[in-house]
Automatic annotation (TrEMBL), chain A:
<dbReference type="GO" id="GO:0043424">
    <property type="term" value="F:protein histidine kinase binding"/>
</dbReference>
<feature type="transmembrane region" description="Helical">
    <location>
        <begin position="183"/>
        <end position="205"/>
    </location>
</feature>
<feature type="modified residue" description="4-aspartylphosphate">
    <location>
        <position position="748"/>
    </location>
</feature>
<dbReference type="InterPro" id="IPR003594">
    <property type="entry name" value="HATPase_dom"/>
</dbReference>
<dbReference type="GO" id="GO:0080117">
    <property type="term" value="P:secondary growth"/>
</dbReference>
<dbReference type="Pfam" id="PF03924">
    <property type="entry name" value="CHASE"/>
</dbReference>
<dbReference type="InterPro" id="IPR003661">
    <property type="entry name" value="HisK_dim/P_dom"/>
</dbReference>
<dbReference type="GO" id="GO:0010087">
    <property type="term" value="P:phloem or xylem histogenesis"/>
</dbReference>
<dbReference type="GO" id="GO:0009909">
    <property type="term" value="P:regulation of flower development"/>
</dbReference>
UniProtKB/TrEMBL annotation, chain B:
<dbReference type="GO" id="GO:0005829">
    <property type="term" value="C:cytosol"/>
</dbReference>
<keyword id="KW-0963">Cytoplasm</keyword>
<dbReference type="InterPro" id="IPR008207">
    <property type="entry name" value="Sig_transdc_His_kin_Hpt_dom"/>
</dbReference>
<feature type="domain" description="HPt">
    <location>
        <begin position="38"/>
        <end position="133"/>
    </location>
</feature>
<dbReference type="GO" id="GO:0000160">
    <property type="term" value="P:phosphorelay signal transduction system"/>
</dbReference>
<comment type="function">
    <text>Functions as a two-component phosphorelay mediators between cytokinin sensor histidine kinases and response regulators (B-type ARRs). Plays an important role in propagating cytokinin signal transduction.</text>
</comment>
<dbReference type="GO" id="GO:0009927">
    <property type="term" value="F:histidine phosphotransfer kinase activity"/>
</dbReference>
<dbReference type="InterPro" id="IPR045871">
    <property type="entry name" value="AHP1-5/YPD1"/>
</dbReference>
<keyword id="KW-0539">Nucleus</keyword>
């Protein structure tokens, strides 16, 4: 058996090797490669490993690897691969003995692992970065390192197995980086950057969402608050409406009751109490109305009307309403409207009246017992050219002059007043600063001047503030809530105007305001305003003489007379009047002179007698017909007791006494009475006025006599009334049971079964029953046609008019009587009382 | 007769009644009440009056026929008649009523009878005149409608 073995390479020092011991078998190396020539003749079986190897190779017939050991020459770690060479083909399933028998030699190869690996790797990568370790891992727990330096654990390890062909042995190759991989800055930076960006974006989104959520929250809260505010507003309006209805209803009840009480039999003290209570009640109602107005203004719900109305009539009525209070205090009141103000203007008469009533009311309140309250209306344009002021009142008003001798001023009552121009000096409208100069609008300037206590200087700023009064004691002394002026200011502003005042304590106050109104046509006036048409006036062309020492007062009287179409002359004393009258005796002016009006201030009994006799004398001298009418003499007075009045009338000095403030309707009535039927036109005028009073009025005629009924019906129908006739008192009762639609009743006195007196008594008691029920709220006002106080005017028709009957009529509740058959004049006078268009 | 002449006749007739005192101003008022809305007013009133007056006069007559005259009852009738008369403007009749009223007040039956006599007289006169007047009026109306 000859085998070829490999031997360990030696350093050619054969002497280091020992001769082989005595053994059964030897396996010397016979042939070898040049590179491993040093192993020639070395017994391969001498090494333990080699021995095992050879034996195993012989037994298995496969290539067998040794475990790593140091090679002879190079001392590198290596392994030897041994093949057994057989001398015949052995079947695969041959037993080891067979194989041992067949062995003739061996073939071996030594692998120098380090150089192998290096050579292999050298081809691959740069040795610097990759560290390779090769292990023999046949014994898994104790791997033998065959190549490679000591392990420096750098982390990543790649293990791959090496198959040298020997199934018994396992080999592994561990590759790792020599150096720890440097920190991947790029990646780290990039990822950190991305992370940061993502965080930021996330943050932005988060913030945005948070913000949206917050805003939505806020919005929801606001919606809630808005809903609550709106609900509060609605509640306030409802409260207003409820208060307005709920408070006014019982108040009206109270007032109605008081009125009824005053209609009954009361002694003086009781009447006084009742009247005081009634006045307080009325004040309370006006207070409530004021507060409600204020609330309406604040909520911006006040709207102005636009209707045509007659300024002069309106002012007349305002002043006459407050004349009671002012006359009681001894204060003279007057109203004057400039000629340039048109007859009809378009605006809100109710609110206009409210403003003026408030100002006049204040004036009355704060003026004690002397002086005057003077309301004047001019066009704003009249003020603009102060140099050529045509209007006398304005002229006087702008120039306050004191008469040294009598220590009086040229004002209405002689008492000093504040300079009125100071109350409008700040008005834009008058200073020409008002840019919007609408030519279609009429701009009026209204001034209310009084001689009261004035307003304290330190309180003047707050005058228009609601609920604030000049002084804490003002409310106590003078009453009021302090809203009036604030409401007036708002109303004035709604009329596109301005309000201002000038006041001096101890002298008086003057309030002025402007307003814009539309132009109106006379024909467009509501019938209730059409009181008097001066063009067809029965006084047209007549002349009058005014004797008054106060020029402004005389101008006021002149204004009223001019409204009736009467031409006027003014003198300032009785003496000069006498002179004047004498001078015009021979002229046509005297023929036209129909009346002489003397103011109480210049009244002097003797001089008047003188005047009268002068006139009488003239009449005699001219041999005029006795029936030619002399001018009638009228006395103008402010506060006069009825006793005084009747005394003067009956004394024959004057034909009548006219009370101030002058009122057109009163003037007409007085003049008509005094002048009598001077012209034939009068009758026709009467008829048409009667017609206007009776038109469309529903009248009940009660008379048992057929003829009388028919005639009365015919007469009333002529004036346009709607007439119903009944025969008996009982029928009248049924017809006049509230609610009914009759406006008046003409009742015959003598009737069978139930006469006029009894019928009236029963009607009145039925009415008071209903009134009581209405006032106490027992029945609703709607059930009775929205009339809160039932009192139908009942006029007795009687053939014989004697005092006793008249008193009896009044006693049982009748309002007046007319004679039967109807006399036009008497009918007119009686009916006018109830159907006068009350203003 | 033609229309104008008839009208003049009527006017004169009424005027004569005024002058005699049979009628007074009130009657002209009634005439004034007659217009297009009330075309037969005068006739209506006259008819009413006549019927009423006759009734009352008969009643008064009857009353005065009794042994014990009920003066208060009488009084009310007189008052009625007086009222009607003054409404229509029958002046003389009204004055006659005043007489009766006075006598009734005095409870003077004789006086009442006398006054009643006068009233009846006046009434007959008035009625005759009214009839003539109405006749004239009707003729005028007829002519007027024929002419149209």
């Amino acid at each position: 058996m000859e085998t070829e073995d490999q031997t360990l390479v030696q350093d050619c020092l054969t002497e280091n090797l020992d001769p082989a011991p005595i053994k059964d078998e030897y396996a010397p190396v016979i042939f070898s490669q040049e590179t491993v020539s040093h192993i020639v003749s070395i017994d391969m079986m001498s090494g333990q490993q080699d021995l095992e190897n050879i034996l195993r190779a012989r037994a298995t017939g496969k290539g067998v690897l040794t475990s790593p050991f140091k090679l002879l020459k190079s001392n590198h770690l290596g392994v030897v691969l041994t093949f057994a060479v057989y001398n015949k083909d052995l079947p695969p399933d041959a037993i080891p003995e067979q194989r041992t028998e067949a062995t003739v030699g061996y073939l071996g190869a030594s692998y120098d692992v380090p150089s192998l690996v290096e050579k292999l790797l050298h081809q691959l990568a740069s040795k610097q970065t990759i560290v390779v370790n090769v292990y023999d891992t046949t014994n898994a727990s104790a791997p033998i390192s065959m190549y490679g330096t000591d392990i420096t654990d750098t982390g990543l390890l790649h293990v791959s197995s090496l198959d040298f062909g020997d199934p018994l042995r396992k080999h592994e190759m561990h590759c790792r980086f020599k150096q720890k991989p440097p920190l991947p800055w790029m990646a780290i930076n990039a990822s950190v950057g991305v992370l940061v960006i993502t965080l930021l974006v996330g943050h932005i989104f988060h913030a945005a969402i948070c913000r949206i959520a917050k805003v939505e929250n806020d919005c929801r809260e606001m919606m809630e608050l808005k809903a609550r505010a709106e609900a509060a507003d609605v509640a306030k309006s409802q409260f207003l409406a409820t208060v307005s209805h709920e408070i006014r209803t019982p108040m009206n009840g109270v007032l109605g009751m008081l009125k009824m009480l005053m209609d009954t039999d009361l002694d003086a003290i009781q009447r006084d109490y009742a009247e005081t209570a009634h006045a307080s009640g009325k004040d309370l109602i006006s207070l409530i109305n004021e507060v409600l107005d204020q609330a309406k203004i604040e909520s911006g719900r006040l709207e102005l009307e636009d209707v045509p109305f007659d300024l002069r009539n309106l002012l007349d009525s305002i002043l006459s309403l407050s004349s009671d209070k002012s006359n009681d205090k001894g204060i003279e009141s007057a109203v004057y409207v400039s000629d340039r103000v048109p007859e009809v203007v378009v605006g809100d008469p109710g609110r206009f009246r409210q403003i003026i009533t408030n100002l006049v009311g204040n004036s009355i309140k704060f003026t004690q017992d002397k002086g005057h309250i003077f309301v004047s209306v001019h066009l704003v344009d009249e003020m603009k050219g102060t140099s050529d002021v045509g209007d006398k009142v304005l002229q006087q008003g702008l120039n306050l002059v004191q008469d040294m001798s009598s220590k009086t001023y040229n004002t209405l009552s002689g008492f000093p007043v504040v300079d009125r121009w100071r109350s409008w000096e700040n008005f834009k409208m008058l200073n020409g600063k008002d840019a919007k100069d609408d030519p279609e609008k009429i701009r009026l300037l209204v001034t209310v001047e009084d001689t009261g206590v004035g307003i304290r200087l330190d309180a003047q700023d707050q005058i228009f503030t609601p609920f604030v009064q000049a002084d804490s004691s003002t409310s106590r002394h003078y009453g009021g809530t302090g809203i009036g002026l604030s409401i007036s200011k708002h109303l004035v502003e709604l009329m596109h105007g301005e309000i201002g005042f000038a006041s001096e304590p101890g002298v008086g106050s003057t309030f002025s305001f402007t307003g814009a109104f539309g132009k109106g046509e006379v024909s467009s006036l509501d019938s209730k305003w059409k009181q008097y048409d001066p063009v067809v006036s029965e006084f047209q062309g007549l002349g009058a003489l005014i004797i008054d020492n106060r020029s402004i007062r005389a101008e006021v009287t002149k204004y009223h007379l001019r409204r009736l179409g009467i031409s006027v002359d003014i003198t300032s004393s009785l003496e000069s009047a006498c002179t004047y009258v004498s001078s015009i005796f021979t002229t046509s002016a005297f023929a036209h002179l129909a009346m002489i009006l003397i103011d109480k201030d210049v009244w002097n009994q003797e001089t008047v007698l003188q005047l009268r006799s002068l006139l009488e004398q003239h009449r005699k001298n001219c041999k005029l017909n006795v029936s030619t009418n002399l001018p009638k003499i009228f006395l103008l007075g402010t506060s006069m007791s009825p006793v005084e009045r009747s005394k003067l009338k009956t004394s024959g000095f004057v034909d009548n006494v006219l009370m101030k403030p002058l009122r057109l309707s009163v003037l007409i009535a007085c003049f008509q009475e005094a002048l009598g039927r001077t012209k034939g036109k009068v009758r026709g005028k009467k008829m048409s006025t009667l017609g206007s009073l009776l038109r469309e009025k529903r009248i009940l005629v009660v008379d048992d006599n057929k003829v009388n009924r028919r005639v009365a019906e015919g007469a009333l129908k002529k004036y346009g009334a709607i007439v119903t006739c009944v025969e008996r008192g009982h029928d009248a009762l049924n017809k006049l049971k509230p609610p009914h639609t009759f406006d008046a009743c003409f009742m015959d006195l003598q009737m069978p079964e139930m006469d006029g007196f009894e019928a009236t008594r029963q009607i009145r008691s039925a009415e008071s029953e209903v009134n009581e029920k209405l006032a106490s709220g027992e029945v609703s006002i709607e059930m009775y046609g929205n009339v809160s106080h039932w009192h139908i005017p009942i006029l007795a028709m009687t053939a014989d008019v004697i005092q006793a009957t008249y008193e009896k009529c009044l006693k049982c509740g009748m309002d007046d009587y007319v004679s039967k058959p109807f006399e036009e004049e008497q009918l007119y006078l009686a009916v006018a009382r109830f159907f006068e268009s009350g203003l | 007769m033609d229309l104008a002449a008839l009208k003049t006749q009527l006017k004169n007739f009424v005027q004569s009644m005024f002058e005699e005192g049979v009628l007074d101003n009130q009657f002209s008022q009634i005439q004034a009440l007659q217009d297009s809305t009330n075309p037969n007013f005068v006739e209506e009133v006259i008819t009413l009056f006549c019927n009423d007056a006759e009734r009352i006069i008969n009643e008064i007559n009857r009353n005065l026929g009794y042994q014990n005259v009920d003066f208060s009852n009488l009084d009310s009738y007189v008052h009625q008649l007086k009222g009607s008369s003054s409404s229509i403007g029958a002046n003389r009749l009204k004055l006659a009523c005043a007489n009766l009223h006075q006598a009734s007040d005095e409870r003077n039956k004789e006086g009442c009878l006398q006054a009643l006599q006068l009233i009846t007289c006046e009434y007959c006169l008035l009625r005759r005149k009214f009839q003539a007047l109405l006749h004239l009026e009707r003729s005028i109306v007829e002519l007027e409608t024929n002419q149209k």
